[in-house]
Amino acid sequence: MNDSTPSEPTPEEGERTSRAENAKNLIKKHKGKFLAVGGAIATVAAAVVVAGLVGGSGTGETEDAGDTDGTEDLRDSESAADLGDADRPKRKSPVGHDVVAALVKLADGWQASEERRAAYKEATGEDLPADSTYRSEHRRGDFGDEEDPGDAVA
């Protein structure tokens, strides 16, 4: 006599079962192990989160006591959202680089200004597409002592 139920037909000899069917059978067979491993992973993740919360409010000393830039580790002080502009550590400027001119797609309902249309026409000789704006070539970042071409004109 066959123990299978009509809803779960067994493959006839020589027929192969699908990968989905094999996966279902594997999960059914080892359900307890899957739950145990999942529970262990969840427990470790929760422990890491708790350790991070507890470990972040220690003695007030930063891990790198040799830091001499005058900024405090934000983990050991108030959150960045609570700091005023004057109290925030200054962000270092990125290395100076040139940004190439580009067409930028605009969100629905937005349109380019006449200034941007004129700049695109001057650069390419063509009309600016209706759903785009034009970003002119420019420089960004910290070039150090090098004079910015825009400053020389002014």
List keywords for this structure.
154 residues, alpha+beta, two-stranded antiparallel sheet, 9% strand
Secondary structure elements and pairings:
Layout: H1 19-29, H2 31-55, E1 97-99, E2 102-105, H3 114-124, E3 132-135, E4 138-140, H4 149-153
Antiparallel strand pairs: 1-4, 2-3
Can you walk through the features of this model?
This protein has 154 residues and is of the alpha+beta class. The chain is 34% helix and 9% strand. It has 4 helices and 4 strands; from the N terminus they run H-H-E-E-H-E-E-H. The strands form 2 sheets. The protein has a two-stranded antiparallel ribbon. It is flat. The N and C termini lie far apart (96 Å).
Low-pLDDT runs of 5+ residues are 58-72
Give the biggest beta sheet: 2 strands, antiparallel
The total count of strands amounts to 4
SSE sequence, one letter per element: HHEEHEEH
What percentage of the residues does DSSP assign to strands (E)? Answer: 5-15%
Distance between the termini: 96 Å
Supply the number of helical segments: 4
Arithmetic mean pLDDT: 75
Structural class: alpha+beta
Whole-number radius of gyration? 31 Å
Strands side by side in the biggest sheet: 1-4
Residues in helices, as a percent range: 25-40%
Shape category: flat
Question: What is the compact description of this entry?
Answer:
The protein is α+β, with helices and mostly antiparallel strands and 154 residues long.
